[in-house]
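Key result, reporting period 2: structure in, sequence out.
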């Protein structure tokens, strides 16, 4: 009888421990970025040197599921960087992040 109670206690402890690991493992590892662009022209928008939006005007653009960490954002005028350029490296956290570019 004692052995049966002991085994049930161990089983319950293991189940609770696994449940705690699953819940902790569900912490968000991405964030949402609102890329706010100012200016009076058309722009190419990049994150980490990868083109995201092409020929867009000033406004707010949303990026979902951006991994947490430092990221490099750029806005380049479609006529070239001499006409308008801005960049920033920003740490992205879980949740909502705002990145401002004024080329």
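The corresponding designed sequence is given below.
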């Amino acid at each position: 009888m004692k052995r049966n109670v002991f085994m049930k206690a161990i089983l319950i402890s293991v189940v609770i421990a696994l449940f705690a690991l699953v819940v902790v493992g569900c912490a968000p590892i991405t964030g949402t970025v609102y890329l706010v662009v100012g200016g009076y022209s058309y722009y190419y928008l990049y994150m980490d040197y990868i083109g995201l939006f092409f020929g867009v005007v000033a406004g707010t653009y949303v990026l979902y599921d951006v991994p947490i960490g430092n990221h490099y954002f750029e806005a380049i005028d479609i006529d070239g960087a001499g006409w308008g350029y801005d960049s920033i490296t920003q740490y992205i956290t879980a949740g909502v992040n705002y990145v401002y570019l004024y080329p």
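The CA atoms of residues 13 and 57 lie 57 Å apart. The two ends are 76 Å apart (CA to CA). This case is discussed further under Risks and Mitigation.
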